[in-house]
Amino acid sequence: MAKITKTRFAPSPTGIMHIGNLRSALYEYLIARSEGGKFLLRIEDTDRERYVEGAVEAIYRTLDVCGLHHDEGPDIGGPNGPYVQSERLHLYSEYADQLVASGHAYPCFCSVERLADMREDEETEFIGYDRRCRDIDPAIAAHRVAAGEPHVIRQRMPLDGETTFSDEVYGVITVMNQELEDQILIKSDGYPTYNFANVIDDHLMEITHVVRGSEYLSSTPKYCILYDAFGWEIPTFVHLPLIVGEDGKKLSKRHGSTSFEELVKDGYLPEAIINMIAFLGWAPGGETREIFSLDELEKIFSAKGINKAPAVFAYDKLNWMNEQYIRRLPFEKWRAMVKEIADPLFDEKKYDVDTLAHVLRERVTKLSDIPEMIRFLTERLPYERELFFNKRAKLDADSASVILNELRPKLETVAVWDETTLSALLGQACEETGRKKGQVMGALRVALAAQRVTPGGATETAMILGREEALARLAAAIDYLKG
Ligand code: GLU
């Protein structure tokens, strides 16, 4: 019987969730789901110096908001726990002992100072450890370990031959074994290195597909040698391409926000971010469509569609995607988002949230644009005579003054301040005076907004502001134009 596909997201809690981390999590999740398999979460916290407070919480929050729910993990348990590496230390040392016993690893007693000197020594050609402790007699080494001498455990790499493995994305890769460093497996504090722990855990947790960033590609031969030393089956490797900015350089702060939570703070919807990230190295075969929900991705995703060319994270594209997602939100949900942002800005003042949400829906790129877009509604901006000038509508400050004076008594009689009444009244005003609609609406819009360009026209602006505020602004504009 074929084994059930099992993938894992194995973040190190060393900081925020970057776009790259989230892409790994998403692809791991999608490979598992598209094959009816399991997705597991493992916290890799063995690098105690780089541990960042709050990072684990950010991982949970992000996975949850994005809908990447795991089937096994520290919070929900599972058959292969514990799922936090610092709770598995005994396992790593047992397996390291096995490797020492079988000759695939050895204790190294070199001091930190010696290793540092060696690194600085320009004569040393081999970049990395010079294997000085490799040939210490095992019995003597065991004795020194038993006597409590500080040491690390290193992997004994074969000195000749080559190692070949196949990656789903990068193809067949072969390296000369002599180029592989005798890497540390267990540090002097007894903690495993990532390089050791990932192999032990992926095996014990029955991971079938190891999906991770291409920065781990060069270490993969060393992992293969470890799997072989234990006689374990090598999993399928899926290394993901580098993520770059539009200038082709590795994506970094210089390009813009690079963490999930920052992007959300910038006003992008999680669904849009996920959709964008799905395309960082993958594309659906034979489709030009770009908008896919997570549900849809779960059905069509395949590791075969992953490309090794660097993936470009283009903020313009994200903007476009976010617009698509905003336009497709159920109106009630969009209205609630607008309300949450607008309420504190309007303070205690009443405003028409429905009209505001309608007006903004087709115009907003990201949520954080809203406060500035509606500042003319939440604050009274100063008038300037030039604002009323509009050549095409044959409007200037003087003609606007006349028009507003004509409109004012009419608007003051409106009892039911709604779209039908206001539109009918303004239409009637144009007819009576023989003026062009653009001229009348233009004058009123600027009087209400004190701004040349506004999302929404005169009627919508009047509706959002409500009767009292709209009439007060009209009066203020008339007053200003008089002076
Ligand atoms: N803890 C590693 C990281 O956060 C995981 C790499 C892997 O997926 O194997 O980069």
Explain what you see:
It is built from 19 helices and eleven strands. By secondary structure, it is mostly helical. Strand 1 (6-9), helix 1 (19-34) and strand 2 (38-41) form a beta-alpha-beta unit. Helix 13 (353-361) packs across helix 19 (458-482) and helix 18 packs across helix 19 (458-482). The chain is elongated, with a radius of gyration of 32 Å. The relative contact order is 0.09. The mean pLDDT is 95. It binds glutamic acid (GLU).
Strand order of the largest sheet: 3-4-7
Uncertain spans: none
Based on helices, strands and strand pairing, what is the structural class?
mainly alpha
Distance between the termini: 88 Å
Q: For the CA atoms, what is the radius of gyration?
A: 32 Å
Q: What percent of residues adopt helix (DSSP H or I)? A: 40-55%
Subunit organisation of the chains: single chain
The number of E-state strands comes to: 11
Mean pLDDT: 95
What ligands can be seen in this structure? glutamic acid
Shape: elongated
Order of helices and strands: EHEHHEHHEEEEHEHEEHHHEHHHHHHHHH
* Major sheet characteristics: 3 strands, antiparallel
- Range of strand content: 5-15%
Question: How many alpha or pi helices?
Answer: 19
